[in-house]
Amino acid sequence: MSHSNLKGKKIVIGITGSIAAYKAAFLTRLFIKAGAEVQILMTHAATQFISPLTLSTLSKRPVYTDVIGEDSWNNHVELGLWADYMIIAPTTATTLGKMANGICDNIIVAVYLSARCPVFFAPAMDLDMWHHPATQYNVKRLQSYGNLLIPVGKGELASGLQGDGRMAEPEDIVHTIANFSLPAPSLTGKKILITAGPTYEPIDPVRFIGNRSSGKMGIALAEVAARRGADVTLILGPSSLSTDVSSIQVVKVQTAIEMYEAALHYFPATDIGILAAAVSDYRPKDPAQQKMKKKTDHLQLELVKNPDIAASLGQQKKKHQMMIGFALETNNALENAKGKLKKKNLDIIVLNSLEDKGAGFNHDTNKISIISKDNKIRKFELKSKAAVAEDILNVVDELIAAEKV
Length: 405
Ligand code: C5P
Known about the structure:
Blueprint: E1 10-15, H1 23-33, E2 37-42, H2 44-47, H3 52-59, H4 76-82, E3 85-91, H5 93-101, H6 107-114, E4 119-123, H7 127-131, H8 133-144, E5 148-149, E6 153-156, E7 162-166, H9 170-180, E8 191-196, E9 201-202, E10 208-209, H10 216-227, E11 231-236, E12 249-252, H11 256-266, E13 272-275, E14 282-284, E15 303-305, H12 309-316, E16 322-329, H13 333-343, E17 348-353, E18 365-366, E19 369-372, E20 377-379, E21 383-384, H14 385-404
Helix pairs in contact: 1-3, 1-9, 4-6, 5-8, 10-14
Bound molecules: cytidine-5'-monophosphate.
Cytidine-5'-monophosphate is lined by residues 195, 256, 275-277, 279, 281, 306, 308-310, 325-327, 340.
């Protein structure tokens, strides 16, 4: 089968110490045949199963086994940024544990922690090791970081036992990565407006009312939408985070009023609005021009309501436009979310409950339910915010496809 879309792709293969390491030679050969560039990394244990010479010959590049090379430093950060894809095959139980916990005592984990590209892992181990709760827990944790599992196969294992634990075949691994690398042009030509992050409402020149939103969810949505071909404008409140994706237009704002004005400006030309910002509901009525002094035992601030950006855009939404809002709830979650969907004239509402561990503000993970205006509820597991963004945009794709019918 031809894998022409792997041509020119830069692939880091990490090989760890399992008998399945011999399959990494076939894997390397297949990637090279497809026109990819391959950089091999090995643990010391892996070199006992297959010779680095075999792999450097097949990959046509030196193999790295250490962060400190013979007379130089093998720059793991550079390698992590160089790669379009990283695949750890085979991934032993030990390496799964190290990756899940960030234990960086070899070059593979060092590059893994530095990589910004999709990371695939193809475990290989014996039956009981694979089914052990510790292993399964580590697999789930890696998936929650957005890493992609290439499932183990069933069959005869090196121990003589029969069952789960065989590393996937090299052809299947290449096939998975080649398909992943196919561009997903589902949002090509769509203009998407995303609000993200908190807003800061000034009390005086140095103090403000704000909230703990990091902007991570909105930024992840912007990046996934851009990867799917959308033309993205991200209106970002005062978050310490931003995006490196140069095709995303970032509009920085501080206050809810500024966010509101920017959103009103961009919305008419927008196909899809995603309101992921945690907008302050109120702002101080008359912010002091000078820093306020502490004079009295009590201080009362008069607050006035901020505009509801989602509701305002909902009012002017045209038939061809779609809007997605978020609801962060502590109680009566589903009912409240459904109420907001209707009230703000949204097409989809993404519900996350603060009761879910690992979900909501400042986490890298999120656990959501998606409610669409036809009252369909889709529930998802705890995942990385990047994977959650994929789920949300998959539902958007579904609704676009349904409306075309
Ligand atoms: O009413 P509530 O704040 O829970 O609604 C949340 C949804 O409304 C989110 O999508 C949020 O971005 C949006 N929102 C907004 N402007 C506000 C308040 C909320 O756009 N002032």
